[in-house]
Amino acid sequence: MTTSSSTGPYGSGVLGSWAGAQRAISTPEQIQHTRQVNGVFMFGDSISVQDGKSLAIRLQGRDGSPLAVHNWSSRPTSGAVDALQQWASTYGLPRRILMASGSNDIFDPPKFAAQVARAVSIVGQNRTLYWVNIQVVRKSVTSTVQLADQRNSSWLNMQLYDQQEKYPNLKIIRWAEWLWVKPYRLLNYLRDGVHPTVPLGQDARNELIVQSLVS
């Protein structure tokens, strides 16, 4: 999550370049195998770069499914959906697609709903699109910007809920609500207001994801 010093039009800042940011992307062989055995494709941001390996181990242990990932730090959802489109064209898609994207869309929330709809269109009606919702209140910024972060996170989540009303195969994994139901979790399960603590927050978030994927 790289931003400029400006608070931007929505108060959270302006997203910087993410082209050179840290990433974790499965090999073509891993992607092809995951597709062939109907595992899970995952598209995420820096949270997923951090937590993806642990998630893959947890999912494999739960129902035997492999996880192929295209995770890229600081990437907004438009880039994640571009990667989904590329994999769909190159490899085809398994029946479960996991989007763990949106944290970097707090900088430009109005564009988010169109990207969710685009992802649903790519996935099609016969597959399930799972989406982890968003909780961002960065500890490193001023209180005013923190308020904008929370407002924009809620704005993004409302767009997700609106899209779910339209598309029954869009399943929301409610990470934000899980954190908020017991406020101490915001302190104990997030190390910087965005990324889960390891292992406590990482295990909690990954368990929510796996429960949804295998239910």
Automatic annotation (TrEMBL):
<protein>
    <recommendedName>
        <fullName>SGNH hydrolase-type esterase domain-containing protein</fullName>
    </recommendedName>
</protein>
<dbReference type="InterPro" id="IPR036514">
    <property type="entry name" value="SGNH_hydro_sf"/>
</dbReference>
